[in-house]
Inverse folding.
């Protein structure tokens, strides 16, 4: 699933927040997560446990991973619960 799109449209921060996603800011990459959508399949924590770690607060730390790899992991989320926005 494309982690920077919803229904083939580019995501915006306002849209994601309006849809109930929570923002996890990073220096160059913001990660967004919706607990309501998450199916707890675990692709994210298996994909990079440094960035995605259940039980830690915050459980997503964008700056713990490199941008390309975190985007790869987000794109592996099968439900669309994870989204990202690259910062300028
Ligand atoms: S990969 Fe997506 S659906 Fe699976 S646990 Fe992570 S956020 Fe939830």
């Amino acid at each position: 699933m494309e982690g920077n799109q919803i229904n083939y449209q580019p995501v915006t921060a306002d849209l994601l927040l309006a849809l109930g996603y929570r923002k996890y800011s990073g220096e160059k990459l913001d990660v967004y997560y919706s607990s309501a959508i998450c199916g707890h399949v675990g692709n994210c924590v298996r994909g990079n446990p440094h960035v995605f770690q259940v039980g830690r607060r915050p459980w997503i730390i964008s700056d713990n991973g490199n941008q390309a790899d975190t985007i790869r992991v987000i794109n592996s989320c099968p439900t669309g619960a994870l989204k990202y926005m690259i910062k300028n």
Notes: The mean pLDDT is 97. Strands lie at 5-6, 9-10, 22-24, 29-33, 82-86. Residues 38-44, 77, 79, 81-82 surround iron/sulfur cluster (CB under 6 Å).
